[in-house]
């Protein structure tokens, strides 16, 4: 109830919207025989600070608020939104979207009655406003300290860029049964990028992290300074990098952020919308083997304070730990309400939207592989010749052909069971339904990423997490230049 | 007339914002305001899937207290919110550092002439009209061939809006513009091979869109030709970037000569001004004043006049792409590129698409690229690709699950030919581009 009251205070009260107004809008939506309807209210405060060239160069503060009104009939969706949270505007929006139902007459469901949902589900993050967790001067001091300490680490450092970003977001969903549910979501992120130079050659290294917590996360346990050290280490390794190999070879992926493999190779292909429509390379394959029996992969929105975690999704469904692949067998898909209803399954709490101005769809939360039994060193030792990829940039997938890429930003040759020379960044490409069948060893060292992931789909960005233990894949194409 | 009134109304708001900033103590300020309305309709398998009514507005303000800067934005344009947003920007400027390069543009660089660039052609298609057109498009794709097995649908997007910006140097301008698009994406299946591809058309005036039937047909053709693609063995060979992906290659070049990357020294083209970056036949220029084009504008996002100019001629880099800030950091003047380039054009060569395939001879035609894979600092380039294997100028079979790699510095220098098969759909206008040699990794 506390969360609901906070969200009402943050969104509805300043706009002067009463429960009776929500009832009016919902009744308007329900006057056509729609299958489902909701109103999504959002208010987000965002700030960012950038330190570069030794000075605090940029600071911004953004406020984004508005409401989206949706009606669903069969596979059809009508949607309208406005950044003005005002009754006449939202009533007009309701009129526009209920027109999605073209046949049938008006029905009398004007009895919609708003009720407060107790929201007695477990909460996966605290209610604090991260923007207020440090005074502005303390944020500035933190940036200065990270910049100073990082710069001291090596004489080859040319530039250090440190950024700090925080979001405090309230959302409130009014559903067709009149129930109101709410969430208050913190999100913070810090990033350190360094450029180093040696004998005229320049390289870059970058490290960051964060989660659904507040800025103290970066101060506690030395987290922020750790980002600086890691960014410098990566940049210096890259100075020594030789040409990356080209061709198909055994690849060992490091733990943590390399889990972007799972996100691209199988995650997107297991989103409910693609599978309902039969457009995914994984469509109709529940119960089939899609990975070696060493692989169990979950999508888990319930992890405490993680970047991809949500207490409830953007349709008001509590998130879950959804098993996607169990011992190599495909178990199920990630669903929002529309696709769950059309496929005759339960929603899994994966209905997410970038904002009130976007329609929800099935999206990942934190996607990771459970640990296996191999010591990571043992995995490296088992490889005669191959690539050890420790850090990655972004990735992309074609869910229909199943082809996916992800780009290594720190990688090494493995020769005779030993990690030898660092190689330049290279893109790795594979086939989603096939790649996990080639996993021959799974490490015991499950690690989640540091909290930097942003996933794009249909032009909508949402924060996500990934993770995995060290993995050995018997054959993946590495896109280097050394043929 | 209605637009004219609305632009004046928004200009008044922007002036109020600037006045408020000065009242709150700012020594200079800049503000931008946009309002946009739109309709998106998508159909799938012959029936409506979504109807979206868009209505966006936003305000951004940057204030300067001497050499200290703060910025803020909001979607709420109420008087109270505007005051609060200006206050937030001012409060931030208390904490940012003195930066000798910060500030509004040089007054003499601000645009003073504002020709009508013919950018605003609202499309009164209506929901029913849009549904009918999208269905016609998707039908054309689905009925094209029996192997077209499924669809992601067809969609129409139509947007029109107004942007106004002003600063305390007295610049206050606004214009209306529109943008419409029609796209279609279908799947094809043969045996175990399932593929998807798409086509789209976009224009400021709906009259200039390709027909719905053509868009559907091209989407179907593009999908069918990918069926039963295979990988290639690892090798080195010439690579032909088709026009749609060649724009990305030029985009990487623009990134490397953009002020932000230059003053941070994170570009593989540092100190390349007046040196040979491309082969001698290459000319790349900006054309901001083209009537009705997607990237046309008489001023950049700071109000600086845009320029019709050569960025590359005779293969030599003649100018950078600079905003006010990055120019000052480099000891140069803004080139009117805050917010990007305007209708960047590479002069087309003599060969059409078929001619370019002949010129390629035996090698890889790339039609799709995946992933980021570009290191701006070093120019190292490695991306996922799909396309066709070509022998003696003839397409042999589709390929996928390969990567192409090289170093951008070498790739740009070793361009062999630019086609006249220009893709006009974006802000970068190029024909297909043939690169002498790249590394292909595959099975």
Automatic annotation (TrEMBL), chain A:
One of its GO terms (molecular function) is metallopeptidase activity. The keyword Protease applies. It comes from the Bacteria. SUPFAM superfamilies: Putative modulator of DNA gyrase, PmbA/TldD. This is Metalloprotease TldD. Belongs to the peptidase U62 family. Residues 37-99 form the Metalloprotease TldD/E N-terminal domain. Keywords: Hydrolase, Metalloprotease, Protease. Residues 130-239 form the Metalloprotease TldD/E central domain. The lineage of its organism: Bacteria, Pseudomonadati, Pseudomonadota, Gammaproteobacteria, Methylococcales. The keyword Amino-acid biosynthesis does not apply. Residues 247-480 form the Metalloprotease TldD/E C-terminal domain. It comes from Candidatus Methylobacter oryzae.
UniProtKB/TrEMBL annotation, chain B:
Residues 234-442 form the Metalloprotease TldD/E C-terminal domain. Keywords: Hydrolase, Metalloprotease, Protease. One of its GO terms (molecular function) is metallopeptidase activity. This is Metalloprotease PmbA. Residues 29-93 form the Metalloprotease TldD/E N-terminal domain. Residues 121-227 form the Metalloprotease TldD/E central domain. Belongs to the peptidase U62 family. PANTHER family: METALLOPROTEASE PMBA (PTHR43421:SF1).
């Amino acid at each position: 109830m506390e969360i609901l009251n906070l969200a009402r205070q943050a969104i509805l009260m300043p706009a002067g919207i009463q429960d009776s107004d929500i009832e009016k809008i919902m009744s308007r939506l329900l006057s056509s025989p729609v299958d489902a309807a909701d109103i999504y209210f959002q208010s987000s405060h965002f700030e960012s600070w950038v330190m570069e060239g030794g000075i605090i160069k940029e600071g911004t503060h953004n406020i984004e608020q508005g409401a989206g009104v949706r009606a669903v009939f069969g596979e059809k969706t009508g949607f309208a939104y406005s950044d003005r949270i005002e009754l006449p505007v939202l009533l007009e929006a309701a009129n526009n979207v209920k027109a999605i139902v073209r046949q049938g007459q008006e029905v009398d469901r004007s009895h919609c009655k708003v009720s407060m949902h107790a929201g007695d589900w477990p909460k996966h993050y605290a209610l604090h406003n991260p923007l207020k967790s440090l005074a502005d001067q303390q944020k500035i001091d933190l940036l200065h300290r990270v910049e100073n300490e990082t710069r001291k680490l090596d004489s080859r450092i040319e530039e250090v860029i440190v950024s700090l970003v925080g979001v405090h977001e309230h959302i409130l969903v009014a559903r067709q049964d009149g129930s109101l549910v709410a969430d208050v979501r913190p999100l913070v992120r810090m990033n350190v990028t360094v450029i180093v130079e040696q004998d005229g050659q320049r390289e870059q290294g970058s490290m960051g992290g964060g989660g659904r917590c507040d800025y103290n996360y970066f101060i506690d346990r030395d987290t922020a300074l750790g980002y600086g050290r890691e960014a410098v280490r990566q940049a210096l390794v890259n100075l020594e990098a030789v040409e990356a190999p080209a061709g198909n070879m055994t690849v060992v992926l490091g733990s943590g952020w390399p889990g972007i493999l799972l996100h691209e190779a199988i995650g997107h292909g297991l989103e409910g919308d693609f599978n309902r429509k039969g457009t995914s390379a994984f469509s109709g394959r529940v119960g089939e083997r899609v990975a070696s029996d060493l692989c169990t992969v979950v999508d888990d929105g319930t992890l405490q304070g993680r970047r991809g975690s949500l207490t409830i999704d953007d349709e008001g469904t509590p998130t879950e730990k959804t098993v996607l692949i169990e011992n190599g067998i495909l178990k199920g898909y990630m669903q929002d309400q529309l696709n769950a209803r059309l496929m005759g399954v339960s929603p899994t709490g994966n209905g997410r939207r970038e904002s009130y101005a976007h329609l929800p769809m099935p999206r990942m939360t934190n996607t990771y592989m459970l640990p296996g039994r191999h010591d990571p060193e043992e995995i490296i030792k088992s490889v005669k010749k191959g690539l050890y990829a420790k850090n990655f940039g972004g990735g992309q997938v074609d869910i229909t052909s199943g082809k996916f890429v992800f780009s290594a930003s720190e990688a090494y040759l493995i020769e005779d069971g030993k990690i030898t020379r660092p190689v330049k960044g290279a893109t790795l490409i594979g086939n989603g339904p096939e790649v996990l069948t080639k996993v021959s060893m799974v490490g015991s060292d499950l690690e989640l990423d540091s909290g930097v992931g942003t996933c794009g789909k249909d032009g909508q960005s949402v924060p996500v997490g990934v993770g995995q233990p060290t993995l050995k894949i018997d054959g993946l194409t590495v896109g280097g230049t050394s043929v | 007339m209605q637009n004219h009134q609305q632009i004046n109304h928004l200009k008044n708001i922007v002036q109020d914002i600037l006045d408020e900033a000065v009242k709150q103590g700012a020594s200079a300020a800049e503000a931008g305001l946009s309002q946009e309305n739109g309709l998106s309709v998508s159909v799938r398998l012959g029936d409506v899937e979504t109807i979206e009514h868009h209505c966006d507005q936003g305000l951004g303000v940057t204030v300067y207290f001497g050499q200290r800067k703060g910025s803020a934005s909001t979607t709420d344009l109420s008087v109270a919110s505007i005051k609060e947003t200006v206050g937030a920007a001012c409060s931030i400027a208390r904490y940012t550092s003195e930066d000798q390069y910060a500030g509004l543009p040089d007054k003499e660089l601000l645009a003073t002439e504002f020709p009508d660039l013919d950018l605003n052609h609202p499309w009164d298609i209506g929901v029913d009209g849009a549904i009918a057109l999208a269905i016609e498009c998707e039908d054309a794709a689905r009925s094209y061939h029996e192997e077209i097995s499924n669809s992601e649908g067809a969609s129409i997007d139509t947007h029109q809006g107004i942007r106004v910006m002003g600063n305390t140097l007295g610049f206050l301008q606004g214009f209306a513009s529109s943008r419409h698009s029609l796209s279609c994406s279908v799947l094809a299946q043969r045996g175990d091979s399932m593929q998807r591809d798409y086509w789209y058309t976009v224009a400021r005036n709906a009259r200039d869109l390709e027909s719905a039937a053509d868009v559907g047909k091209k989407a179907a053709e593009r999908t069918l030709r990918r069926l039963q693609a295979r990988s290639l063995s690892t090798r080195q060979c010439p690579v032909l970037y088709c026009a749609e992906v060649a724009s990305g290659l030029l985009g990487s070049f623009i990134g490397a000569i953009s002020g932000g990357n230059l003053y941070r020294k994170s570009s593989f083209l540092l100190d390349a001004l007046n040196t040979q970056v491309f082969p001698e036949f290459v000319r790349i220029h900006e054309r901001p004043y083209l009537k009705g084009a997607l990237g046309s504008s008489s001023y950049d996002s700071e109000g600086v006049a845009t320029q019709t100019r050569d960025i590359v001629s005779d293969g030599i880099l003649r100018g950078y792409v600079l905003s006010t800030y990055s120019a000052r950091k480099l000891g140069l003047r803004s080139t009117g590129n805050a917010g990007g380039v305007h209708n960047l054009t590479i002069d087309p060569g003599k060969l059409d698409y078929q001619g370019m395939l002949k010129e390629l001879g035996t090698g890889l035609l790339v039609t799709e690229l995946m992933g980021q894979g570009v290191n701006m600092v070093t120019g190292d380039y490695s991306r996922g690709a799909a396309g066709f294997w070509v022998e003696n100028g003839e397409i042999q079979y589709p390929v996928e699950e390969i990567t192409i790699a090289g170093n951008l510095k070498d790739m740009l220098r070793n361009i062999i030919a630019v086609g006249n098969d220009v893709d006009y759909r974006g802000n970068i206008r190029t024909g297909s581009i043939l690169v002498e040699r790249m590394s292909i990794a595959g099975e």
